[in-house]
């Protein structure tokens, strides 16, 4: 595999500690649960989402942007941005449809539309969890497009969690469901090596230049 050979080349530039961490955490990585963020505008929320997603072993986020850029605060992420791939897409239904065409069931995190409560949710196929903006929640057109809605049970007067808290609760709970299941939720071998290359590049001060030179020399 091309990415496997690339990683084997890059690993010579990594510290032994960093190489051990990559090899330890990579096999547990998954894209079975894909957080999709709607135009979040508070950088602390963006950072907290990245940190929570990475902590649960999911290493990709899609940020749908229109009025605001998804811009995590690096002091809050505590380095999680090194490991999480961020894909930026326009904030529209075409982007959601593209994600669906990649094989994901679209799940809007919202109490609307007869939502399934999180503890009762049956996780049987890859899901894209759509989280709405801080003020308005999931947009109406995405609620209408979604295959299902998912709600976090509430036990007090407050009827919703902050978006970053909601994301943390959902990805953690779904990770627990995967761990208790027989689902093969981990990355394919091809995606695994691709991710390890990205991690290695992000771990090096001149990672992009080192990778570019290697690819140029091995065309």
From TrEMBL:
It catalyses: guanosine(18) in tRNA + S-adenosyl-L-methionine = 2'-O-methylguanosine(18) in tRNA + S-adenosyl-L-homocysteine + H(+). S-adenosyl-L-methionine binds at residue 152. Residues 36-172 form the tRNA/rRNA methyltransferase SpoU type domain. It comes from the Bacteria. Keywords: Methyltransferase, RNA-binding, S-adenosyl-L-methionine, Transferase, tRNA processing, tRNA-binding. Its EC number is 2.1.1.34. The keyword tRNA processing applies. SUPFAM superfamilies: alpha/beta knot (SSF75217). It is an enzyme of class 2 (transferase). Gene3D superfamilies: 3.40.1280.10. GO terms for biological process: methylation. Catalyzes the 2'-O methylation of guanosine at position 18 in tRNA. PANTHER family: RRNA METHYLASE-LIKE, TRNA_RRNA METHYLTRANSFERASE SPOU TYPE DOMAIN-CONTAINING PROTEIN. This is tRNA (guanosine(18)-2'-O)-methyltransferase. The gene is trmH.
């Amino acid at each position: 595999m091309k990415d496997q050979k690339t990683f084997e080349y890059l690993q010579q530039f990594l510290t032994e500690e960093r190489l051990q961490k990559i090899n330890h955490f990579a096999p547990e990585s998954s894209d079975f649960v894909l957080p999709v963020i709607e135009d979040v505008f508070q950088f602390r929320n963006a950072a907290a989402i990245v940190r929570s997603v990475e902590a649960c072993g999911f290493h990709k986020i899609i940020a749908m942007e229109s009025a605001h850029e998804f811009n995590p605060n690096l002091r809050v992420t505590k380095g999680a941005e090194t490991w999480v791939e961020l894909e930026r897409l326009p904030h529209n239904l075409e982007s959601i449809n593209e994600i669906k065409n990649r094989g994901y069931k679209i799940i809007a995190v919202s109490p609307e539309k007869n939502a399934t409560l999180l503890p009762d949710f049956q996780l049987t196929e890859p899901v894209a969890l759509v989280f709405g903006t801080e003020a308005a929640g999931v947009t109406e057109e995405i609620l209408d497009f979604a295959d299902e809605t998912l709600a976090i049970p509430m036990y007090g007067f407050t009827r919703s969690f902050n978006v970053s808290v909601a994301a943390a609760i959902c990805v953690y709970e779904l990770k627990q469901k995967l761990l208790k299941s027989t689902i093969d939720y981990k990355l394919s071998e091809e995606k695994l090596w691709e991710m390890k290359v990205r991690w290695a590049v992000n771990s090096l001060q001149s990672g992009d230049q080192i990778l570019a030179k290697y690819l140029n020399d091995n065309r």
